[in-house]
Amino acid sequence: MNALTIYGAPQSRAFRTLWMAKELGLDFKNEPLSPRSGETRKPEFLAINPNGHVPAIDDGGVRLCESMAINLYLARKHDKGLWPKNVADEGRAFMWSLWAITEAEAALLPVLINRFVRPGSDAEGEAKALPKIDAMLKILDQALAGKDYLLGGSFSVADLNVASVLSWAKLLKIDLKEVPKVDAWLGRCLGRPAAKVS
Ligand SMILES: N[C@@H](CCC(=O)N[C@@H](CS)C(=O)NCC(=O)O)C(=O)O
């Protein structure tokens, strides 16, 4: 029996957690609930995550939601080289994980909705979001100056969390030529074997 169950289809934000579990080489079970299908509103799932959102995990009775928090927890618990080596870098990993949601995802989401989720539903939202995407990508590009990964020389939970959100930029075919360091870093991160989750 798997101690760890990950709820959420690989095409959803559960991709972030499935990638982390594969990086860590964990034995886990995936319940591939699809968002907007009604599966996330069933009482059995609401007992796991009352918000009705994926990803969520049940790790031997530890029930968590929020993709970034789950990944920080798993990387810390299993300490297989993805967890930062000092408290300053832990702070940076927390910062980048929150940044991934509040800056990167917030900028990308309106475009994802308008192009894929409800095509043509919010052209104005997309137009407002595009400059925010440019700004957020420039900040990330500057942060990557002189290093291969966000915390320095090696891939960490900070990279996985930010790159898993930035994978939407690839899906949306956002042009990354003005941000070459992001382009190369994202290629390195998403090219990892564990990032192929389906
Ligand atoms: N901030 C949350 C967002 C989770 C979320 O909104 N997930 C979507 C799927 S990608 C969802 O479960 N929606 C529920 C539904 O529409 O049924 C996280 O990062 O985990």
Q: Can you describe this structure?
A:
With 198 residues, this protein is α+β, with helices and mostly antiparallel strands. The protein has 2 domains: 4-78, Glutaredoxin (3-Layer(aba) Sandwich); 87-195, Glutathione S-transferase Yfyf (Class Pi), Chain A, domain 2 (Up-down Bundle). The protein has 7 helices and 4 strands. It has helices at 14-23, 43-46, 67-78, 87-117, 123-143, 157-171, 180-190, and strands spanning 4-7, 28-31, 56-59, 62-65. The model has no long low-confidence stretch (mean pLDDT 97). Bound molecules: glutathione. Glutathione is lined by residues 12-13, 35-36, 40, 52-55, 66-67.
State which percent range the strand residues make up.
5-15%
User: Which stretches are poorly predicted, pLDDT < 50 over at least 5 residues?
Assistant: none
Helix content: 40-55%
- Number of helices, counting only DSSP H or I runs of 4 residues or more: 7
CATH architecture of the largest domain: Up-down Bundle
The Cα radius of gyration reads 17 Å
Distance between the termini: 22 Å
Characterize the biggest β-sheet.
4 strands, mixed
The number of distinct structural domains comes to 2
Topology, number of strands: 4
Which strand order does the major sheet show?
2-1-3-4
Q: Which secondary structure elements does this structure contain, and how are they paired or packed?
A:
Elements: E1 4-7, H1 14-23, E2 28-31, H2 43-46, E3 56-59, E4 62-65, H3 67-78, H4 87-117, H5 123-143, H6 157-171, H7 180-190
Parallel strand pairs: 1-2
Antiparallel strand pairs: 1-3, 3-4
The protein binds glutathione (GSH).
